[in-house]
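Data card: per-record layout.
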Amino acid sequence: MKKLLVLICCLVFSLMLAGCGSKTDAEKKVLRVATTANFPPFEYFQPNSGIHTGFDIDLMRELGKNLGYDKVEFVNVDFPKLLDGLEAKEYDAVISGLAITPEREEKAAFTKPYISDGLTIVLPVGTKFPNEVESLKNKRVAVESGSIAFDWVMGHTHASNIVVTDSTEEAIKAVVEDRADCMVASKLAVAFLLAHGFSDSVRFAGDNVLVEDRIGIAVNKENTALLEQFDAELEKYRKTPAYKQLVRTYFGSVR
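The structure for this 255-residue chain is written out next.
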């Protein structure tokens, strides 16, 4: 009987210790991150599994873990509204293939670039013209709403008609369906889509880029502490084999 009481006391004590070591949901340190999950391979949503995935998603999860967060919670937001919500402090950070531009830096603080991309012209298979701004004159050009490609096409070309779409994939479909003569978009995003079903329909106009993009994570301008933490962790992580493998996984030989 005495041995049984000792065993019961030990079990109760173990359970008490386990309870003390676990965190409630309110106690967990959560990093809230906004993204627009329709921009593969940077970020996209998998309906079957109900999870966000992509290069940016995996990168942010790794950064959150290394910075001591218990969870990274992703919030899906319309692309044009991402920085508005950040200004309003509705979330802690934005990662969404965001090119760093002077206009965006007026609304948010950006980390140092974690990857470089570039804008490129995409054509229907069977057509050909140079990957140059002059090629877009008098053309119907498809672009994603709110993207850096949209801003660039509006400010640097003489397109006859700009076909605005909700995503890069929809812009490709506009070209395939002859609603646009070509499109301008992120080279990395298009490379992913070419590898997943569109290579028979569209092609790059050339190997070069029209303009290079530097892509960073955005935080509220007042949150200098988080910005410094991101920059320090990104500098360390980008030197690791794990980061190099992450790049190869999502971008392959295009990088």
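Known properties of this structure: The two ends are 70 Å apart (CA to CA). Residues 118-213 form a domain with the D-Maltodextrin-Binding Protein; domain 2 fold (CATH 3.40.190.10).

See the next section for split statistics.
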